[in-house]
Amino acid sequence: MDMASFYSSDIDSDVDIVKGEFELWKKKWQKVEPNQRPKTAVEALNEPDIKLLFPNVSKLLNIFGVLPVTTTTSEKSFSTSRRTKTMGEDRLTGLSMMSIHRSRDIDVAVIIDRLAGQKI
C-alpha cells in the first residue's frame, strides 16, 4: 500500500508532492555512509531541519514512530488468561503479568521481604 495515499488525511500536501519530497529525502541519505544513517523513525526525526526541509516526511515519520510493531503482548495475555480462569482477580492479574513478562528477572528475596512487611 502507498503510505502517502493512506495517510493523505494527516498530511497537508498533495500525494505527488509528498512522493517527490520522499524521493529527495532518500537521495539525501544515499550520499551518507550507511553507518551514519538513522536506523529508526525517531532517530531520523532528530536530524536538524527535517521539519523545515521535509515537512511531510517528518509527519510520516512521527506517525511511524508511534505505530506498534506487533501485538504479541495482547496475544500472550489472552492465552495466559485461559489457563487462569478460576483464580481470584489479584492473583490472576499477578500471574498473568509474570507469564507475559517472563524475560524479567525476579529477585525472590525482595518479594519475600515485601510480603513479610504486609499486614494480613
UniProtKB/TrEMBL annotation:
Q: Where is the HAT C-terminal dimerisation domain?
A: 53-101
Please name the Pfam families in this protein's record: Dimer_Tnp_hAT
Q: InterPro entries given for it? A: HATC_C_dom (IPR008906), IFN-induced_PKR_regulator (IPR052958)
Instruction: Cite a single GO MF annotation.
Output: protein dimerization activity
Alphabetized PANTHER family for the sequence: 52 KDA REPRESSOR OF THE INHIBITOR OF THE PROTEIN KINASE-LIKE PROTEIN-RELATED, DUF4371 DOMAIN-CONTAINING PROTEIN
Give the protein's recorded name: HAT C-terminal dimerisation domain-containing protein
